[in-house]
Amino acid sequence: MSSLVDYLDKGASLGRDAPCLVEGATTLTYGDVQDLSHRVAGALATSGVQPGGKVGILSSNNATAFASVFGIARLGAVWCPINPRNEADENRALLELFDCELLLFHSSYADMVAKIAEQLPALQTVVCLDQEDDFESWLNEGMPALELDPPHDLAMLVGTGGTTGLPKGVMLTARNLETMTALTLMGYPFQGRPAYLALAPLTHAAGVLCFPVLALGGKIVVMRQPDLGEFLRLVEAERITHTFLPPTLIYMLLGHENLATADLSSLQCFWYGAAPMSTARLQEAITAIGPVMAQLFGQSEAPMMVSMLPPKEHFDADGNIATHRLASAGRPAPLVQVGIMDPETGVLLPDGERGEIVVKSSLVMAGYYKNPEATAEASRFGWHHTGDVGYLDADGYLFIVDRLKDMIITGGFNVYSAEVEQALMQHPSVRDCAVVGLPDEKWGERVEAVVELKPGETAEAPDLIAFVKERIGSVKAPKRVHLTPELPRSRVGKVLKGEVRAELLH
């Protein structure tokens, strides 16, 4: 596929009348979305956007907003998803970095747009997607756009979020996304026309997972708000076959009162990823949701499919849950080379040794937009550096130990926060947790944990510390445990360790 619009057109070739995007009572067929994409492409061209131009979309999950992506691609322009849950200053910085000249936005974010647009001289046009006198008028003024082959391969610019400083723009090409799509279709079950439920933000993993669904002529059911009760209802009502949630939302789903009575028999593949998942909760999910859980591991710079653990690999040959394998991120995908490297020397390490996870593949980004220094740093020694610590076992399964930046050095020992978190999550009262290192005069750093308990459950900090000591020893056990009603989370459900650490230091 040389362009994102090719996925839409492939799906439409299987039937223009088939449902493509469903949101509430509204259904857009493949023909509807194709027609809209032509109109959007024409309006963009009339507004002065050239092939290769950058177009931002600022919206929560919305069928019209996602359909507009294909108009951007049909012109040969570049889709720049802007996360609506970012602060205004961060989105202003991203729009400036990306050189966006036109912004499509939902009226829910009109105040944010009014605040930042005047600070962006390159931004020539802003259009509100859900106000007919704005969006429809803009479409009607557009001239028919010539269909052009993209002048280059760039399909998307994705912000890294700026959690470690200024945000970077990840350049994803049509080839990157074609590789991701091929791996998805190659590695996970797809029977018949899929029906994909998008609760997680379409600006992130939930969005790019739509492309393999479209290639098969499947429908995408869009949820604007993250309501788990509605999620369960839609799985049953729309006969959903595929969906994706980050672990935190799966933990909440496991505690939902409607889970036991929901009909989830249509599910073929329930992806989880974006953060490590507790093996204890994963076993619960396999029992409560079904033998459909499927892990994926990737990052913005190498989207989704660095390694894969499809549903069948959650089980041994005898049909029992493969508990020894659940802590892994699966095996490297077929079109991806994964190595474990000493990041200082560039030496690749043997099986079983821990080092930085590095990747070679057509899955890997073209680089960081207008940032050759960061691109060079991320591609040292000819491999893409993920920033994750891990190891490969003798059977080729990849185990992710921690983020490099989250490793805690206490009393001269390396403690991986993810290992401590896995131990805490084994406790039956713990819903979620975050483990961080804090400065300590005696140990250099000390291990501390913040724990969110399940609703109605109780546990005391000393008991939780003792629980971890029994499992992984006193060196790795937290020196202190703090209980909180709710951990801080990002727009995609990840626990924000930076905020946890800052609060503990406060």
The domain count comes to: 3
Parts with pLDDT < 50 across at least 5 consecutive residues: none
Strand content bin: 25-35%
Q: How confident overall, as mean pLDDT?
A: 91
Percent helix among the residues?
25-40%
Specify the CATH architecture of the largest domain.
Answer: 3-Layer(aba) Sandwich
- Under CATH, the topology of the largest domain can be stated as Rossmann fold
Radius of gyration: 23 Å
How do the strands of the widest beta sheet line up side by side?
Answer: 2-1-10-9-11-12-13-14-15
Q: What is the assigned CATH homologous superfamily of the largest domain?
A: ANL, N-terminal domain
- Structural class call reads alpha/beta
The coarse silhouette is globular
Tell me what the structure shows.
This protein has 506 residues and is of the alpha/beta class. It folds into three domains: 144 residues, Rossmann fold (3-Layer(aba) Sandwich); 177 residues, ANL, N-terminal domain (Rossmann fold, 3-Layer(aba) Sandwich), CATH 3.40.50; 95 residues, ANL, C-terminal domain (GMP Synthetase, Chain A, domain 3), CATH 3.30.300. Helices cover 31% and strands 27% of the residues. Helix 11 links the parallel strand 11 and strand 12. Helix 2 packs across helix 3. The longest helix has 17 residues. The model has no long low-confidence stretch (mean pLDDT 91).
